[in-house]
Amino acid sequence: ISEPLPPVKPKVEPPKAFSMPKVNDDPSRAVYYLVGRGISPEIIHWCIEHKLIFETTKFSNVLFVGYDKAGNPKYGSVRAIDGDYKGDVSGSDKRFSFRIARADSPRKVHVFECAIDLLSYATCVKLRGGNWRKETYLSLGGIGGKVMPLALEQFLKDHPDISHVYLHLDNDQPGRNATKNITEILKSNYVVKDIPPPEGKDFNEYLRIRLSKQKPITKEASR
After folding, report:
1. What are 110's strand-pairing partners?
2. What are phi and psi of 18, to 5 degrees?
């Protein structure tokens, strides 16, 4: 009687490396879209100059890029200018999601679910006369489950001087649940504060509500 053949092990494909999409030299459509969402042209152009925001050649989508500590691009989040599509570039590593980290050794970090909300909050800081460049901001690239988001876990590991974590997650049930879970995980080692948008579902919606009560959003981005 012949012995049974050993089971065939499934072939495991190695993780795909992140590769930057092709981008346009002129990101004016992306700029126009972001200004239309209420985001400050100054902040948009600063991000473009520092290679954080691009416009993809394919579909002219907005591309938000995140880097590792060595300055290598590791993450890309795409937001459609026309339509509702949003998603991560193939091979993206969520540990290095989109962020604005100005200080070498920041003591506090403001945390958001996505890049649009991060930029909206920075715009709110600017609108109230604050210096948005002095703050440190991190987007999670989405939230999920009861586990610690990879982006926040990596950021805290890379920035050991952080003592305060300000959570600005959405005013919906997933956002509230994520805030509760993250707080529970971090509260023994950090000062964690829950600061959701005062109005609206997220900080972009709050920004647009705030602007609608003041003056129309101007399209001054291409100057």
Report:
1. 137, 166
2. -70, 135
Is residue 101 within 8 Å of 156, Cβ to Cβ?
no
β-bridge partners, 66: 75
What does the pLDDT look like over 63-107, one tens digit per residue?
999 999 999 999 999 999 998 899 999 999 999 999 998 767 899
pTM recorded for the entire structure? 0.88
**Amino acid (one-letter) located at 194:** D
Question: pLDDT per residue over 27-72, tens digit each?
Answer: 999 999 999 999 999 999 999 999 999 999 999 999 999 999 999 9
| C-alpha distances out from residue 187 to 21, 75, 159, 177, 203, Å | 38, 28, 17, 15, 24
Conformation bin of residue 220: beta by default, left when phi > 0, alpha when psi is -120 to 50: alpha
Strands 73-79 and 62-67 come out as antiparallel
Q: How far apart are the first and last CA of the chain?
A: 82
> Strands 164-167 and 108-112, how do they pair?
parallel
Phi/psi at 216 (5° precision): -60, 150
Is there a contact between 95 and 67 (Cβ–Cβ < 8 Å)? Answer: no
- Comparing C-alpha atoms, which of 55, 52, 160 is closest to residue 98? 52
